[in-house]
Amino acid sequence: AQCAQESIYNLLPRLEEKPVKPPRYISTFRPSVKREVEKNKARWKTMGPAKVAVPSPKNFLQKHSKEPKLPARKKEQDSKKLPALSVPRRTDHPVMGIQSKKNFINTNAVAAITGLPKKPQPIYVDRRQGDKYLLETSGLVPKYIKKKDYGVTPKYVTQRSEEMKRAQKEYEAGILEHLKKRAMKRLSDEERRSLLQGLKKNWEEVYREFQGLSVEIDTIPKKIYKEKLESQMKQLEHDIEVIEKHKVIYIANE
Prior knowledge:
It contains seven helices and four strands, in the order ααααββαβααβ. It is mainly α and about 250 residues long.
């Protein structure tokens, strides 16, 4: 292993190359900053002045001095009169010498005889020896069906139906406007009738030509002609069926 590391180049001494350091970075603003620091340099620049005004011992912090104070009461509020009391004052004297000739015993007896008896409240019992409960708040009295508006369609339902009808009308009007923009033309009843008659007449002519074919079709031109007539008849039958099925037809103006 040592023989393998030996080399003739290792016999000569090698000079050690020291790495060259790059020049140190110096900011371009260094002179201006240095000049500004020297210009503004002063004693106690960052620590504040050496002497500060000491507060007077007479202006010490007093109790409740930092609490919010109510505004001073105005004279108008003091001059306002107090409201009249429903209770008599302590200094007031009652009116003396007033007597009533009303016979309270007789009036009470007449009111008791002529008055209507008090109706008992309807109650219900949940079992034979159970507790009593008021019948009105139990839910057993049919109050709902006796209401004035029972069976009447609610306002929100009618309002919603009117909104749906209005939306449907707006949708139909939008479709019609869209069709007008696309230059769609609606066929009138007379045009539809005349078109249907013309298609039927063409079908009769093609059918007459188809009936006039020879019984035996043995050549290629005859077969091609027969297939052509059959395709024309199918197309005409399809067009007639479509026009008879749809009463309203729109066509695009090219």
